[in-house]
Amino acid sequence: MKLAVAGTGYVGLSLATLLSQKNEVVALDVIPEKVEKINKRISPIQDEYIEKYFKEKELNLKATLDYKEAFEGAEYIIISTPTNYDDEKNFFDTSSVEDIIQKVISLKLDTTMVVKSTIPVGFIESMKQKYRIDNIFFSPEFLREGKALYDNLYPSRIIVGEKSERAEKFANLLKECALKEDIVIKYMNSTEAEAVKLFANTYLALRVAYFNELDTYAEIKGLNSKDIIEGVGLDPRIGDHYNNPSFGYGGYCLPKDTKQLLANYNNVPENIIRAIVRANRTRKKHIVNTVLQKTPEVVGVYRLTMKKDSDNFRASAIQEIIERLKDEDVEVVIYEPTLKAETFDDCRVINDFKEFCEESEIILANRYDAILDSVKDKVYTRDLFARD
Hints:
The chain is α/β, with parallel strands linked by helices. The protein folds into two domains: 2-188, NAD(P)-binding Rossmann-like Domain (Rossmann fold), CATH 3.40.50; 197-380, NAD(P)-binding Rossmann-like Domain (Rossmann fold). It has helices at residues 10-19, 32-39, 48-56, 67-71, 95-107, 123-131, 148-153, 165-177, 190-221, 225-233, 254-264, 272-292, 317-327, 353-359; strands spanning 2-6, 24-28, 61-64, 76-79, 85-86, 91-92, 112-115, 136-138, 158-160, 185-187, 298-302, 331-335, 343-344, 347-349, 362-364, 379-380. The strands form four sheets. The chain has a six-stranded parallel beta sheet with strand order 3-2-1-4-7-8, with helices on both faces. A six-stranded mixed beta sheet has the order 13-14-12-11-15-16, with helices on both faces. Strand 7 (112-115), helix 6 (123-131) and strand 8 (136-138) form a beta-alpha-beta unit. The protein starts with a strand and ends in an 8-residue tail after the last strand.
């Protein structure tokens, strides 16, 4: 069948690639360069499996700038446009999702819209009432940056925000194109599915914040943080995963989803959710204070990206640390090979690694890399396990 995907970020492009193995997929984007790359089978994002499938698989996939071309004749229109958190409004900016909904309505199509963008709890119901429509439901995604297609091929679960024949048909589309067998599929109402997404990501943020606070304690008290974490993780109820300290949680989802969930708690008693948001700020403050105690004049930042094998540095924790160091009149230089500009946030970008190391008195590395071995004495990192 024909399927449309609106938005070609990590979510949209991985879904378009997955589904185009067995269906006709037309992907819509507003950036001509991305559309051109996809049609030439060049991935506009860094993702090992998308790049592999673009090279090796026969995909019935086309990208376009024309929403009519994308939407007309599509049985499902998957909406995966970005929804950034607006700190002033204290809510997600869902205008890109609503824009697609309006376009679909204007075409008077007999189609089902499936929202994959992260949205506030209650958004789908509000859209149904506002536009007097019923052909829409929510299905959350649970993807990692750099491994988005892999996580669609081997999904931890599939959650669909409707109990209906069309919801089952959509879930089966995802299941049939995946490689994993015995995939758990859970059907529920869209409002509950919206809550699942926000609560799942906020729990992950809680786990990051917890082990970061453990690490802060160990660092200040002069204890072996790695030994403590490994000892704690031996309890099977806790486990030895998602426990590697960092400069703070960041990226596409965790910062905005925790804030959105907190906003959804308006008039509902809570303590933990607010603490998760605050804990991330506290961790970054601790990292900055630790660096300032070394009284450096020039601090080097090794990579803006959140993790290895990713080219995304949106809302990365290191950026707030850079801002705080600048506020203390510390010069910051950046090594980030994915950046072509000579400056970033008024900081010099030095992409000659040797020059970068020579100029930096201290090198901050959220995630350690073997390339830093030659200047290990300059590196400050809390990456204990060289992963995550």
